[in-house]
């Protein structure tokens, strides 16, 4: 069996194999350990992938694709406008995987006996993991499993170390930061906790250098427009000078001063006054350190948060192990170690450790299983024949020795003896008396498979023939015992018909993986065979309340067209079997006993398309979310003083400055990440000041009713709303979810009353139809918009209501109160 590990990186990628004994790194044709994650297509259609593509990309940005890993799991197109071609992030990643796989010998590439582990950041969500698997399939790689990068780094670290202890792995790559806390005991590794930052890496350092050093120098030296960052005419200038800044940054690892240099002959560009543009900027290490200080502080905070998750202090940690290209920079390592108060270590090659660890992990997977589960570490053998003898042993261990225990049923001939010999080295255990519970200690003299032969002798020393007399015990490089889930993931449900949306968690952050389980739900509405409607199992990442403050990561849908006969009636039982593997990927299987139906995510009932965002034109959506969250935050801040709210405000204020017409997907995604982190901070602050913030929320709902709804309500509805408000007042200080349920009921009544009003339905349609940025599927949006306009022209408001239901089901979730229809139709079991 061939075990392959691939580090599919933002900036650089690497590939290794493991044969059970040794790890081998496969270099690029240029004999580099890593291959740049870059694609270039020239005007004749020739495609280059790797180092040459990276070198050509800076001067020809319209012909190249780089940094696409940051956009995995989104619908953002990668435009190569210079050659009129468009790729998805998955297609770009597939190109990198193909070129890496081509480095392997043919006997590994063209065989069914290979298993490949591809690493993903711990911060990757369900959509990003699914996209990575899609890229592997496009690349034609056979059996594939995913693994979290910090776990791979830990595997590589522990293979190098001989002593036990608890270590913090600081993995800073080109695009992401992963933090892992790992404990090693006799080669067995438990990952105690992990964390990190999704958009933090060497790429951000380069961007900071350009914005704060290169751009000001260019503007003061040449006649260039202030908006050089967004002006397409100067895209090449930005790329080439950023590359020059990156080279200078690398030089600072060895020197106190470097020059950001690019002669006019290499640039071949002129400013608006016709002057040849060049770059010649002195960069001091102290200045660079000051520029990246904020990002380093954020990374240190992430490390402290991860320590807190594990219930540890810096005094419990033996070393910080640095992984990833940017950690080659010694001042960064020194700063992180000093701030954390933990000694640094460089036990591994930071550029290749993740790929090496992935290859080692690949050996621990049972590739014959459909779910790519890990091999069992326990072995049992029954010898058969005249003896009723079985032997139990640890079949996989990183130790140099293991024990084997005999179990004998019935009587054994007096004087019988047991002996086990190594078939690899000739080592022998010597003979011991054969009895129930007899124990032998075996030496594992070599890494990988160790083969032993079993001997049983009668009282006269004669051998007893055994039909089965051999066992194989694998001495592994390292073994992972525990991998905690990096995110909570849950199914959106209603606690009761018409009740408050909530999450029924499949896995909680920090829970040990892999995990399997069962859940029982009920259908909230009927679904007839052949019907265009569906039952929606909406998946969210996070554990915040309200549900829409979490990240929507996909939907498992059972459509009427998915079964040919019968009706799933409202209240019908929906039985869910779920499995979450080592990487955090989720597989669902839903059975509906009433119709004898079985629906599996592997048959494409699960879809992440509804959750995908095109960040090249999502700036308006992100800014709206930032502004809305900022309004909510400002209202809370008037009543509550909390450090978390101040941090949230900093993030939202930055995101709200996003230009609604911004086309740089990286900037937009950074802002979206900031909004999501701010929501998490607000939710955390809410728990600390629950009564005060609940009062604010209640006052807001009551005011909305008085100002916009009361005049349209029937007397019984007014009375019901006011009674709910009084009950909610009494529930303000209760440490249960009763208040939130009441508040949701009040919001539901507001919506129900307004939904009855034709003018409200028309206004809502007009608002949605004027907001195409809220919809990822523009084709379906346009069709529904056209149908809605037809319904208004025909004065068919009931039809317009149905169209609005459909529009709400396909739009991007904003987390606002008007998401009333964008909820699942599943009830808790």
Largest sheet: 7 strands, mixed
Instruction: Choose one word for the global shape.
Output: globular
Task: Give, in spatial order, the strands making up the sheet with the most strands.
Answer: 18-17-12-13-14-28-31
Tally of structural domains: 5
How many alpha or pi helices? 20
Number of strands: 41
Q: Percentage of helical residues?
A: 25-40%
Rg, alpha carbons: 30 Å
Write the layout of secondary structure elements.
Elements: E1 2-7, E2 12-18, E3 23-26, E4 35-36, E5 38-41, E6 47-49, H1 51-57, E7 64-66, E8 78-80, E9 85-87, H2 89-101, H3 106-109, E10 114-120, H4 126-138, E11 143-148, H5 149-160, E12 165-172, E13 177-185, E14 188-197, H6 202-221, H7 235-251, E15 257-262, H8 264-267, E16 279-284, H9 285-309, E17 319-323, H10 330-340, E18 344-345, H11 353-362, E19 378-382, E20 389-394, E21 396-397, E22 401-408, E23 417-422, E24 432-433, E25 439-443, E26 448-457, E27 470-475, E28 479-484, E29 489-494, E30 501-507, E31 512-513, E32 515-523, E33 527-528, E34 534-541, E35 551-559, E36 567-568, E37 573-580, E38 586-592, E39 597-600, E40 606-607, H12 619-637, H13 643-656, H14 665-688, H15 690-709, H16 715-730, H17 738-755, H18 758-769, H19 778-793, H20 797-810, E41 826-828
Parallel strand pairs: 1-10, 10-11, 12-17, 14-28, 17-18, 21-27
Antiparallel strand pairs: 1-2, 2-3, 2-4, 5-6, 5-7, 8-9, 12-13, 13-14, 15-16, 19-20, 20-22, 22-25, 23-24, 23-26, 26-27, 28-31, 29-30, 29-34, 32-37, 32-41, 33-36, 34-35, 35-40, 37-38, 38-39
Helix pairs in contact: 2-4, 5-11, 6-7, 6-9, 9-10, 12-13, 12-14, 13-14, 15-17, 16-17, 18-20, 19-20
């Amino acid at each position: 069996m061939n075990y392959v590990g691939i580090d599919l990186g933002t900036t650089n990628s690497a590939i290794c194999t493991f044969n059970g004994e040794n790890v081998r790194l496969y270099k690029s044709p240029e004999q580099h350990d890593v291959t740049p994650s870059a694609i270039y297509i020239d005007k004749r259609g020739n495609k280059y992938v790797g180092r040459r593509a990276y070198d050509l990309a800076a001067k020809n940005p319209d012909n190249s694709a780089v940094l696409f890993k940051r956009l995995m799991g989104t619908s953002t197109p990668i435009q190569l406008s210079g050659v009129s071609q468009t790729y998805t992030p998955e297609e770009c990643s597939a190109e990198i995987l193909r070129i890496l796989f081509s480095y392997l010998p043919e006997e590994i590439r063209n065989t069914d006996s290979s298993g490949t582990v591809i690493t993903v950041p711990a911060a990757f969500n369900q959509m990003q993991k699914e996209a990575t698997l899609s890229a592997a399939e496009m690349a034609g790689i056979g059996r594939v499993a995913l693994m979290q990068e910090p776990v791979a780094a830990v595997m590589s670290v522990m293979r190098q170390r001989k002593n036990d202890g608890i270590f913090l792995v600081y993995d800073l790559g080109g695009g992401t930061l992963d933090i892992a806390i790992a404990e090693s005991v006799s080669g067995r590794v438990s990952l105690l906790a992990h964390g990190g930052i999704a958009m933090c890496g060497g790429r951000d350092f380069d961007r900071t250098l350009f914005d704060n050093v290169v751009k000001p120098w260019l503007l003061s030296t040449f006649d260039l427009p202030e908006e050089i960052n967004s002006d397409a005419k100067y895209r090449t200038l930005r790329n080439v000078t950023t590359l020059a800044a990156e080279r200078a940054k690398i030089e600072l690892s060895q020197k106190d001063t470097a020059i950001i240099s690019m002669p006019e002959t290499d640039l071949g560009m002129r400013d608006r006054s016709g002057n040849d543009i060049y770059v010649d900027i002195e960069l001091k290490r102290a200045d660079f350190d000051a520029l990246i200080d904020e990002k380093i502080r954020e990374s240190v905070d992430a490390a402290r948060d991860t320590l807190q998750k594990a219930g540890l202090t810096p005094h419990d940690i033996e070393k910080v192990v640095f992984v990833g290209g940017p950690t080659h920079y010694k001042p960064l390592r020194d700063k992180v170690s000093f701030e954390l108060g933990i000694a640094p270590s460089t036990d591994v090659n930071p550029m290749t450790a993740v790929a090496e660890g992935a290859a080692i992990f690949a050996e621990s997977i049972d590739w014959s299983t459909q779910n790519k589960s890990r091999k069992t570490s326990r072995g049992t053998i029954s010898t058969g024949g005249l003896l009723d003898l079985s032997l139990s042993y640890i079949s996989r261990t990183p130790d140099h020795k293991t024990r084997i225990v005999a179990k004998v049923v019935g009587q054994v001939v007096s004087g019988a003896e047991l002996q086990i010999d190594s078939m690899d080295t000739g080592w022998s255990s010597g003979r011991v008396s054969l009895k129930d519970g007899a124990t032998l200690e075996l030496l594992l003299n070599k890494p990988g498979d160790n083969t032993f032969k079993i001997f049983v002798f009668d009282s006269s020393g004669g051998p007893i023939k055994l039909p089965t007399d051999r066992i194989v015990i694998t001495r592994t490089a390292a073994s992972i015992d525990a991998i905690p889930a990096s995110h909570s993931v849950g199914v959106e449900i209603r606690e009761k018909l018409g009740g408050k949306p909530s999450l029924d968690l499949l896995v909680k952050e920090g829970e040990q993986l892999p995990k399997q389980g069962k859940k029982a739900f009920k259908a909230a509405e009927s679904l007839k065979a052949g019907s265009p409607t569906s039952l929606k199992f909406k998946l969210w990442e996070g554990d915040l309340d309200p549900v829409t403050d979490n990240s929507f990561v996909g939907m498992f849908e059972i459509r009427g067209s998915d079964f040919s006969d019968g009706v799933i009636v409202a209240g019908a039982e929906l039985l869910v079997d779920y499995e979450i593997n080592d990487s955090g990927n989720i597989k669902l299987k839903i059975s509906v006993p009433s119709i004898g139906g079985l629906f599996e995510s592997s048959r494409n009932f699960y879809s992440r398309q509804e959750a995908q965002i095109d960040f090249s034109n999502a700036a308006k959506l992100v800014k709206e979310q930032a502004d809305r969250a900022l309004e909510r935050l400002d209202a809370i801040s008037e009543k509550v003083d909390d450090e978390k709210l101040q941090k949230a405000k900093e993030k939202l204020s930055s995101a709200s400055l996003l230009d609604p017409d911004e086309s740089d997907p990286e900037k937009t995604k950074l802002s979206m990440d900031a909004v999501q982190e701010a929501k998490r901070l607000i939710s955390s602050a809410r728990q600390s000041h629950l009564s005060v913030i609940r009062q604010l929320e209640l006052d807001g709902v009551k005011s909305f009713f008085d100002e916009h709804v009361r005049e349209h309500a029937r007397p019984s509805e007014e009375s019901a709303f006011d009674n709910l408000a009084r009950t909610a007042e009494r529930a303000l200080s209760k440490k249960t979810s009763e208040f939130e349920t009441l508040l949701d009921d009040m919001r539901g009544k507001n919506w129900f009353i307004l939904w009855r009003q034709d003018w409200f339905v028309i206004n809502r349609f007009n608002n949605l139809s004027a907001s195409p940025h809220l919809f990822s599927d523009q084709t379906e949006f346009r069709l529904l918009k056209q149908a809605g306009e037809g319904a208004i022209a025909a004065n068919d408001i009931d039809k317009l209501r149905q169209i609005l239901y459909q529009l709400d089901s396909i739009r991007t979730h904003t987390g606002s109160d008007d998401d009333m229809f964008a909820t699942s139709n599943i009830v808790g079991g």
